[in-house]
Amino acid sequence: MRESALRRKIREYLNTVPSLWQVPVVGTRWGKRGAPDIICCYLGYFIGIETKSPGGKPTPLQIYEGGKIQKSGGHYLLTSKLEEVKTLIQEIGNAEE
Q1: Model confidence pLDDT, tens digit, residues 14-62
Q2: Where are the alpha helices (DSSP H) in the chain?
């Protein structure tokens, strides 16, 4: 699956999750280099999602920024599968019950 198709499927799924806010990050020269493709807030948790096609590799800057998100208490997911996103959202939801 192409990265753009995966990103679209993930965003469509996230749109169905109650109490979840999301925004796609569009790369521009004014944007934050290395930022995840999708940024979310769900039940008070910050989530950064970086999508890759199967076999795709993150850049060193993407890995660095993902580490900063995790060190600050947020969730960072590097994924090529919609199911991994669903699992993360489910885990966060279960932790809040």
Answers
A1: 999 999 999 988 877 777 889 999 999 999 999 999 999 999 999 999 9
A2: 3-14, 60-71, 82-95
Query: What is the greatest pairwise CA distance in the chain?
Result: 41
For residue 80, what are its two tokens? 């090529």
Are the C-beta atoms of 92 and 42 separated by less than 8 Å? yes
Q: How far apart are CA 56 and CA 44, in angstroms?
A: 30
For residue 13, give the nearest of 67, 83, 61, 64 by alpha carbon: 83
Contact in structure between 19 and 42 (CB atoms under 8 Å): yes
